Amino acid sequence: MRRNVSTTLRRRRRPDPMQAYDALPRPLRAWMAQAALPWSPASCRRIWAKARAEGESPDDILDRLDRAEQMTLSRDRLSLPAMSRAPLNDQQDQRP
After folding, report:
1. Which contacts of 57-63 are long-range, i.e. CB under 8 A and separated by 24 or more positions?
2. Are the C-beta atoms of residues 38 and 74 closer than 8 Å to each other?
3. How far is residue 48's CA from residue 25's CA, in Å, rounded to a whole number?
4. Mapping DSSP to helix (H, G, I), strand (E, B) and coil, where does residue 92 land?
5. Which of 11, 25, 58, 96 is least surrounded by CB atoms within 10 angstroms?
6. How far apart are CA 84 and CA 61, in angstroms?
7. For every one of its 96 residues, what pLDDT tens digit does the chain have, with 9 covering 90 and above?
């Protein structure tokens, strides 16, 4: 089947994300399954490998990932703490 692109350039091969996910250690896969953000298997593998090289235990690495995720969520202006404040329009309607 031909693609709908006329080019002589070679396509860039992308690795199968499910195969990369399946190759991760079991605790890391379990953490990714419950993560609030859509982490890539490549970024998680990089963090895992670096922390293991530094001698950290799997539990310490998962704690590190939790902290990284919480820091990222805290920067998101649409995250739960930011949304818990009442919008300006609602505050104006509640005049004494």
Report:
1. 58/25, 58/27, 58/28, 61/28, 62/27, 62/28, 62/31
2. no
3. 9
4. helix
5. 96
6. 31
7. 555 666 777 777 777 888 999 999 999 999 999 999 999 999 999 999 999 999 999 999 999 999 999 998 888 777 555 444 445 555 555 554
What type of residue is 73?
Answer: L
Question: Which of 92, 94, 32, 18 lies closest to 62 in space, CA to CA?
Answer: 32
Which uninterrupted H or E stretch holds 59? helix 58-75
Q: Which amino acid is at 82?
A: A
What 3-state class would DSSP assign to 8? coil
